[in-house]
């Protein structure tokens, strides 16, 4: 089985509004008039949804611009912009979805382009775009796959262009029981959904790094069920070997234990686990600084923060993380950090966590 086959099988089924969900290939046998009428009814229902109510925000902006939509489904969102003059390209992993979009566009007399996303996640056949729109699609694959896809797409987004996403927020995942992402997918999108993963602005920045992004919009929708994020892409930041350092052999242990990249902390609300000296890795770079980490908290509660040379914490920069499904990207920022500090943050429970990666960067 190819890497994306499970996802292709699921996303032949798309939200239809009027009918709940529909398989795009099941409506292809309808005569043209009936097919277009059926599609138009679903699109009209979509226009009344939380996504549809945002359409007016982008009508003028998208007009005349080249836009790539990742995970276009049956084209409900992109086609209404294409009808208003946007140069729209739909990219999808499901061939029948793209076939349905092409048929609707032809019947409407609208010019669009389509791109079949293969297992290599390549977009080399495409040219440059003014914006990328991702409406609840790539959060349905694991973070590492989503990152590979996003990095490939970024090669085709012009500097000054926009990256726009609708995601499921972490607050919703917590509210619905912090279940594993392969289970949460079925909770959010029904049977056979292989995956659903929460995102926020920092997690998207981590996925797109070392891209430089300026936030245009970051807003909650539908009482915390969704989050809409809109960024200006300012180009790629510096990505050199000097920005990276290996953890092996480098932690200063203060009460915890570690084996490779797996760390354990003893119970205590502020019980120290370990620290890393950042200063040897700052040579040749200038601040302000950011530290990007990918952390998997397997049990307990862990505080991750920065400190000065004397060990004084920058308390407003500490992130406190509970055990969760999958790896969580976090970013810490400071003008003059000297140490990265990790400590247990639960009075009665110890902790275990895996540091997948740590990078020191110019902010």
Quaternary organisation = single chain
The class by helix and strand makeup works out as alpha+beta
Biggest sheet features: 7 strands, mixed
CATH superfamily of the largest domain: Vaccinia Virus protein VP39
Percent range of helical residues: 10-25%
Mean pLDDT: 89
Number of helical stretches of at least 4 residues:
9
Order of helices and strands: HEEHHEHEHEEHEHHHEEEEEEEEEEEE
Total domains: 2
What is the β-strand count?
Answer: 19
The radius of gyration computed from the alpha-carbon positions, rounded to a whole number of angstroms, is 23 Å
Task: Give an account of the 3D structure.
By secondary structure, the protein is an alpha+beta fold. The protein has helices spanning 5-10, 32-47, 55-62, 76-82, 95-108, 143-154, 170-175, 181-189, 201-208, and strands at residues 13-15, 21-23, 66-70, 87-92, 113-116, 129-135, 157-167, 211-221, 226-236, 252-253, 257-259, 262-265, 272-277, 289-299, 301-307, 319-322, 328-334, 339-344, 351-362. The protein starts with a helix and ends with a strand.
């Amino acid at each position: 089985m190819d890497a994306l086959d499970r996802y292709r099988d699921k996303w032949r089924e798309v939200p239809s509004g009027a009918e709940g969900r529909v398989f795009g290939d099941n409506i292809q046998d309808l005569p043209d008039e009936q097919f277009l009428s059926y599609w138009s009814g679903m699109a009209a229902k979509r226009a009344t949804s939380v996504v549809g109510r945002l359409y007016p925000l982008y009508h003028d902006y998208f007009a005349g611009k080249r836009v790539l939509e990742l995970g276009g489904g049956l084209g409900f969102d992109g086609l209404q912009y294409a009808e208003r003059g946007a140069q729209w390209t739909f990219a999808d992993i499901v061939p029948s979805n793209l076939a349905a979009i092409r048929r609707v566009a032809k019947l409407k007399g609208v010019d669009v382009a389509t791109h079949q996303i293969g297992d290599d996640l390549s977009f080399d056949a495409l040219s440059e775009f003014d914006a990328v729109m991702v409406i609840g699609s790539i959060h349905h694959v694991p973070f590492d796959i989503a990152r590979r896809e996003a990095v490939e797409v970024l090669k085709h987004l012009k500097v000054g262009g926009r990256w726009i996403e609708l995601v499921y927020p972490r607050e919703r995942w917590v509210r619905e029981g912090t279940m594993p992402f392969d289970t949460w997918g079925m909770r959010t999108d029904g049977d056979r959904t292989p995956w659903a993963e929460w995102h926020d602005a920092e997690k998207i920045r981590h996925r797109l790094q070392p891209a430089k992004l300026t936030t245009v919009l970051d807003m909650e929708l539908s009482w915390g069920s969704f989050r809409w994020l809109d960024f200006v892409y300012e180009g790629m930041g510096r990505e050199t070997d000097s920005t990276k350092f290996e953890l092996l052999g480098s932690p200063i242990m203060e009460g915890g234990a570690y084996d490779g990249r797996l760390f354990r902390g003893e119970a205590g609300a502020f019980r120290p686990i370990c620290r890393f000296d950042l200063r040897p890795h700052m040579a040749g770079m200038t601040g302000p600084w950011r530290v990007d980490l990918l952390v998997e908290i397997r049990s307990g509660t862990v505080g991750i923060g920065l400190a000065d040379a004397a060990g004084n914490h920058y308390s407003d920069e500490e992130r406190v993380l509970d055990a969760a499904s999958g790896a969580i990207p976090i970013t810490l920022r400071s003008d003059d950090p000297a140490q990265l500090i990790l400590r247990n943050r639960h009075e009665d429970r110890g902790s275990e966590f895996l540091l997948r990666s740590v990078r020191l960067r110019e902010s």
